[in-house]
Amino acid sequence: MTATAPSYPSVVPESAPALVLDGITKTYRSKAGAVDALRGVTYHFPRGSFTAVMGPSGSGKSTLLQCAAGLDQPTTGVVVLGGVTLRGLSEVALTKLRREEMGFVFQAYNLLPSLTVYDNVALPLRLTGKRPQRAEVHAVLEQVGLGDKVKRRPAELSGGQQQRVAIARALITRPSVFFADEPTGALDSNSSRQVLSLLREATDRAGQTVVMVTHDPVAAAYAERVVFLSDGLIAGHLDRGTPGQIAAAMSDLER
Amino acid sequence: MFFLSSQTIRRHRHLYAGSFVALAVGVFLLGLAATATAATIAHGTANLVSITVTTLGDADAAPRPVKVPMSGEDVSGLQVVLSLVGTISGFITIFVIASTFAFAVASRRQELGLLRLIGATPRQVRRMIIGEALVVAVAASLTGALLAQLATPLLLSQASYTELAPVKLEPASPWVPLAIAVGIGLVVAMLGARSAARRAGRVGPIDALREASLESARIGPVRVIFGLLFLAGAIAMLALIRPSSGEGVVPLSMFTPMVLVVALTLLAPLIVPLLGRLWAMPLVAWTHVSGRLARSNVIATPRRSASLAAPILAISAVAGSMVLSLSFAADSAAATIRDTLRAPIVVTAQSMPTVSGVGAVDAGLPVQFVRAGAEDAQLEDAEGIDPAIASQTRALTPLSGDLSQLTGNTVAVSKQMAGFEHYQVGDEVPATFLDHQAVKLRIVAIVPDGLGVNPDFLLPLDLVRQHNPTAKPERLFVQPAPGVDPTELVTRLEHAVLATAWEADQADGVRQGNQLGLVLLLGPAAFYSAIAIANTLLMGSLQRRQEFVTSRLLGATPNQIRRMVLWESSLVGLVALSLGTAITVTVGILIRHAMTAGVADVPVTVPWGILLGIGGLCLTLAVGSALAPTSYILRVVSQETVVHQRQ
Ligand SMILES: Nc1ncnc2c1ncn2[C@@H]1O[C@H](COP(=O)(O)OP(=O)(O)OP(=O)(O)O)[C@@H](O)[C@H]1O
Ligand SMILES: [Mg+2]
Question: Where is the signal peptide (chain B) (predicted)?
Answer without folding.
Answer: 1-38
